[in-house]
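Good day; I would like, with your permission, to put a structural problem before you. What I wish to show you is a protein chain and, alongside it, a tokenised description of its three-dimensional fold. Here, with my thanks, is the record as I have it:
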Amino acid sequence: MKKLTQHVNDLFKDIPASERKEVVMQEVLQNLEEKVWDLMEHGKEEEDAINKAIVEFGDIDELKNELGVSPEASERQPSMLKNRKLNLEYSIWGSVLIIGLFTFINFYYTPEIIWFVYPTFAVLWWPLSMYYRWLKVKRGE
């Protein structure tokens, strides 16, 4: 039955520790042990009964959803962080270019009036919003 305990621990390794997780792990382990004992009563060898119980149990995607962890969350996190960082870098460079364009137009056509500051405030919201989205993903929210 050590193999069952190891299998259950491997299934739940990506889920953050909590009291609810421990309860669900004990229930799953108990159900698997009951299945093994039932199969052994019907003539299966212990090793075969353990393997069959594990195969019939399948995956725990529904249990992960119940515990509040999406099955792809751990796989998606690094790529989402990378994409958000790329979006942040793109917004910074885009803002610099747009502000540079406004500055050039301002000083080339109307050097006596400094108006490029006003659209600069509007353009700066873009990288600021991308920065907060990047922080949100980085924190895992």
In short: The CA atoms of residues 8 and 28 lie 7 Å apart. The two ends are 37 Å apart (CA to CA). The mean pLDDT is 85.
